[in-house]
Amino acid sequence: MQSNHGSPENDGNAARGPLPDGLEQSSETEFDLNKYAYRAPGGGSVRREQLTIPEGRPKDCFFRVDPRPEMQLKVSIFEYQADGRLGRDTYILTPDVAEHLGHRAKPAVIRVCIRRPSILQLWAVKEPKAERGTPNGYTISAWEALPTLEKHWASLVQNESSTGYDVVLAETQWADPEWRDESLAKLVLKAFRGRFVDDLDHELIQKLQGRI
Q: Which pTM does this prediction carry?
């Protein structure tokens, strides 16, 4: 009687068809199916580097403020609105330039924010300062909101009297943000690109003095 041992009909591997690439030499007990399981995009450990960073107060969103001392810096700023622009651009000044501009230069503290879900934004928060005897309610309320924003997800909205901001806490307090390990200097360079004024021949100063 002729043996069928080894024939294609009785060859278990042949009946199952070819194995996936790289598994020809693996046994069934070594095959880990879980590594082929579906994973939603973005669920891995890959981290994106934000090459451009918006600057200004986060608007119409819930956000947090980085509480680490090394991620904040007091500076002098100048807010300039060019012709045809809806908003103002914030420039960072060296102390010598700030002294030259006098009261037009404003003291501020650069703070690092994360907007939901994970967008970095830098905000130069002006220090409260009474000018001509009238405190600015928006400056004061934004400054006073910082301790809350360091601990809770919240947004800033104009109050009903239009005299400052109200802090609105998110009903869902999500987990604390994963603060980035990039230096503050690197973040500031990305956010204020082209808006550093370090001498009196800068284009901004020439415009303010009517030289150009």
A: 0.74
